[in-house]
Amino acid sequence: MANLENLYREVIMEHYKNPRNKGLVEGLGYHIKHIKNPSCGDDVTIQTKCNEGVIEDCRFEGSGCSICCASASVLTETMIGKKVEEAEAIAHNYLKMVSNESIDPSIDLEEAEVFAGVRLFPARIKCASISWKAFLETIKK
Ligand code: ZN
User: Fold this and answer.
1) Options 3.40.50.12780, 3.90.1010.10, 3.40.50.20, 3.40.50.10730; CATH of 2-138
2) Strand bridging mode 54-63 / 42-51
3) Distance 69 CA to ligand 1 centre (A)
4) What is the per-residue pLDDT across 21-79, written as a single tens digit (0 to 9) for each?
């Protein structure tokens, strides 16, 4: 178990240092949502483009703690290429996981599972959630 925790921490730090899909782009068809978490200074904007029911692109911009930035990076990687309904189900399941609610084990959270430990730190739940909540806003019909 200790090794798994170390691995998770490594994945989170790696995304924090080398964020994927960071930086917003100009372009038609993007939906944007900005959310702040005043309790620790996290400030994230998520930008998503859907095409024929599929997440064609997902990007983020922002600053904040390592959990916040890494979870935004993992979010974008997880969502690109997913069907919108699938992406929505994953995001809801992820938000349940970090909030320590029961999750649907049939929905694969992929790399986002590394944030499972957040539920043990109630003060960090918001940090791990804001980009995923913003993402859900960007795919709302
Ligand atoms: Zn934070």
Assistant:
1) 3.90.1010.10
2) antiparallel
3) 8
4) 999 999 899 999 999 998 889 999 999 999 999 999 999 999 999 999 999 999 999 99
